[in-house]
């Protein structure tokens, strides 16, 4: 056995923020998941960005004030880890969720077209779009 459950660390192909849904990309790297992605791996635990050629600002637009750069790797939660995600639509407690694109999740519905990421564990559910809520990853 190599691993039993997450998180697992991956190299990023684009800027990824903690809490965003991520998907597999070529070369063993990850990026922000597209809507209804079939290659969703989990949820990013931290911020990361590929190397930037600009020396006056980091990948998030913050002025560089030290020699510490933004990490190129981030850990991804999967395998039963509960994480906070932003929802693109209301979702009920216990409902399955999939990637909505832009790093968010949405209810999977009866016939999901993407890979199920997990289940809503926010006790009251999520009542509106662009609200955070808890998800237990698969």
What does this structure look like?
The two termini are 18 Å apart. The protein has strands spanning 8-11, 21-24, 30-32, 40-44, 73-77, 82-87, 96-101, 104-107, 118-120, 131-137. It is an all-beta fold. The protein contains no helices and 10 strands. A 5-stranded antiparallel sheet has the order 1-5-4-2-3, with no helix packed on it. The model has no long low-confidence stretch (mean pLDDT 91).
Q: Which terms summarize this structure?
A:
single chain, 138 residues, mainly beta, 5-stranded antiparallel β-sheet, 10 strands, globular
Unreliable parts: none
β content, as a range?
25-35%
SS class:
mainly beta
The major beta sheet can be summarized as:
5 strands, antiparallel
Helix segment count? 0
Tell me the layout of helices and strands.
Elements: E1 8-11, E2 21-24, E3 30-32, E4 40-44, E5 73-77, E6 82-87, E7 96-101, E8 104-107, E9 118-120, E10 131-137
Short structural description:
By secondary structure, the protein is mainly beta. It is built from no helices and 10 strands.
